[in-house]
Design brief:
single chain, 360 residues, alpha/beta, Aspartate Aminotransferase, domain 1, Aspartate Aminotransferase, domain 2, 7-stranded mixed beta sheet, 12 helices, 11 strands, binds pyridoxal-5'-phosphate
Length: 360
């Protein structure tokens, strides 16, 4: 065996482009177009005068952040786990909760979904199966109920709303899936829940096999700070912490703990900003419809749309030539679609103008 044969080989996740040029309308990675909560800037100013913030190891429990989130979401601090973006949280969840998956009882997730899931499953050698979405891109809960589908499973994960479709699965359907699988962990990835969808958090009171994961990257305008979190029952969170503290204890740096805490405490800014983005989304949907675009109804901070007369790749290139960047996935079933992040009203007006010019 050569050294190369001994290596763990993986096909990594490919993220959306982060362009170096200025004067670009960047609508390809679902970031927030507005600045974070005002308290975040104040917290950064305070950090500049506090040398211990960098000199010392950070609090590995991120206590102030955990406490602020616990207060905000009305759960106990022991029900919370924070990580370096929800990608960090999700990677640790795969490692912790899907260890028992087998070929007979694989991890299940939709065929069209967040493309990091199969990367983590492959990295950790977790057997998995992709379950096709219905033609309208909705999840059929029956596909995740073993008694109905005939498919046993060892774990389930899906985003709600789903990515990159934006389609929300109703709370009753989410509950059916959680209730039908008491012997495995069901993770609901709520990266986009804050733009008008319903959270699964209330179900935590009834089900001990549910874990809800959220992030500061989209709805709290802090993708650069890398803050994500999971909420579940204490026992489940305890197992997740055991794995985390067996891997790398000091992941979240102190500046992120402090600014995350400032953000978590500002409910008014949060409601206003997410409401504004949802309103822009609804206006943008009407404009897209008038231009002849087709799209599933989105509850996220993006719209997943296609035009019957154009290929997704051509539209993406034509927008790029007009300095507008959107996401295109060259994958089965969705290669004609563009995922367009909701920016400011002004940015979306410019997108509509560009599309009108391209379609003319
Ligand atoms: C953006 C996203 C994440 C991860 O975001 P982080 O920046 O790592 O918090 C997780 N799941 C879905 C579905 C996403 O779209």
């Amino acid at each position: 065996m050569s050294w190369e044969d001994r290596i763990r080989k993986v096909e990594p996740y490919v993220a959306g482009e982060q362009p170096k040029e200025k004067d670009i309308i960047k609508l390809n990675t679902n970031e927030c177009p507005y600045p974070p909560a005002p308290g975040v800037e104040a917290a950064i100013r305070d950090l500049a005068g506090d040398s211990s913030a960098l000199r010392l190891y950070p609090d590995m429990d991120a206590t102030p952040l955990v406490e602020a989130l616990a207060a905000q979401y009305h759960v106990k601090p022991d029900q919370l786990f924070v990580g370096v973006g929800s990608d960090d949280v999700l990677a640790l969840c795969f490692l912790t909760f899907f260890a028992g998956c087998t070929e007979e009882e694989p991890l299940l997730f939709p065929d069209i979904t967040y493309s990091f899931y199969d990367v983590w499953a492959s990295l950790y050698r977790i057997p998995f199966r992709r379950i096709p979405l219905k033609d309208d891109f909705s999840i059929d809960p029956a596909d995740y109920i073993p008694a109905k589908s005939g498919q046993a499973c060892g774990g389930i994960i899906f985003p709600n709303p789903n990515a990159p479709t934006g389609v929300e699965l109703g709370q009753e359907a989410v509950e059916q899936i959680v209730a039908a699988n008491p012997d495995c962990i069901v993770i609901v990835d709520e990266a986009y829940v804050d733009f008008g969808a319903k959270t699964a958090l209330p179900l935590l009171e009834k089900y001990d096999n549910l874990l809800v994961v959220q992030t500061f990257s989209k709805s709290r305008a802090m993708a650069g700070a890398r803050v994500g979190f999971a909420i579940g029952n204490e026992k489940l969170i305890g197992y997740l912490k055991d794995v985390k503290f067996s891997f790398n204890s000091y992941t979240m740096n102190l500046p992120s703990i402090r600014i995350g805490t400032a953000s978590a405490k500002d409910a008014a800014w949060f409601a206003e900003t997410t409401g504004r983005i949802a309103a822009t989304r609804e206006r943008f949907k009407a404009e897209l419809r008038a231009l002849g675009f087709e799209f599933p109804d989105s509850r996220a901070n993006f719209v997943f749309a296609r035009h019957p007369a154009f290929s997704g790749a051509d539209l993406q290139a034509a927008l790029r030539a007009r300095r507008i960047i959107v996401r295109h996935f060259n994958k089965p079933r969705i290669s004609d679609y563009l995922r367009i992040t909701i920016g400011t009203d002004d940015q979306m007006d410019r997108v509509v103008d560009a599309l009108r010019e391209i379609l003319a």
